[in-house]
Amino acid sequence: MATTTAGPIYERSLLLQTALTLLFLLLIQYLTVKIYRTFIYPYCVSPLRHLPGPKDHVFLLGQDVNQFRSGCPNEPYLAWMRTGPTAPLIRYFTFGNSEALLVTSLAAHREILQTKCYSFTKPKFFVKLIGDIVGLGLVFAAGEEHKKQRKAPSGLFSYTNIKSYVPLFRRKAEELAGLFDKAIGNDGGIIEVASLYSRVNLDIIGLFALGIDLKYLDRPSTFHHCYHEVFEPTTFGAILTALNGFISIRWLPIEANRSFLRTNKVELQSVDPGYWNKDLMLDQILNAVAAVFPRNYYAFTAQGLKPHVRL
């Protein structure tokens, strides 16, 4: 009787020991690969290691911390370009010592965006990072899917159609100038321009893409408030957004995530998909809405500070 019971016990013990050994070997293999990719490959093996680039990386976080601290979407990239104005490519590190390239030459831009545009796709982490905000429409489409989606709005952005909207752009610019005059008179010349720029851009998108005058420039709206919260989150929300590009934490039951989902839901419900595929239409609209924030009011501010510079 003792022999019959010892057999199964011995087998279970052997299976457990084998399973633990396999797990230990897998862990060793995983750690070895990670150490190689993080500390050896970028410095000793990568074909990009000889390219110029910044040296002030934060350990395991690369330049992500420096970009977060800069408070501007153009920094620290502009600073790097000033230190190496003739370099066509600048290499820098991101999270986990992953390599990234800043394209600075016109020839490289032309190849990436035109001649060989379908040979380059958006990084998966980047899609995951901002896909929840801007949707997965034309911005992230690749190959044949990109060609298909690009045809849909081509008439909207034709020269003739854009020219016909010039009076609309002028009218909205005059309305914006009127608000500036009013704010200067009421607040002693101090104006918070970011909100006004984003509101006028939303009005133009509504008329140009949807044929609807949203009139956000005239009055505050729930949509604009949510729009502002999505693109100007709290510090904790910004950290979660950055981490979500590498670790799936967007669905953790915490208040920052709940606020993001609520505001994003309001934006989605404000869009009428019409006859097009609902998900695809929402993605395209979110792409357009995201495009105006925050780069446009940074451009307007830069133009005001340096009026002699014109494109």
UniProtKB/TrEMBL annotation:
Keywords in alphabetical order: Heme, Iron, Membrane, Metal-binding, Transmembrane, Transmembrane helix
Transmembrane segments: 14-33
InterPro entries cross-referenced by the UniProt entry: Cyt_P450 (IPR001128), Cyt_P450_sf (IPR036396), Cytochrome_P450_monoxygenase (IPR050121)
Gene Ontology molecular function terms on file: heme binding; iron ion binding; monooxygenase activity; oxidoreductase activity, acting on paired donors, with incorporation or reduction of molecular oxygen
Disulfide bond listed as a keyword: no
Name of this protein: Cytochrome P450
UniProt similarity note: Belongs to the cytochrome P450 family.
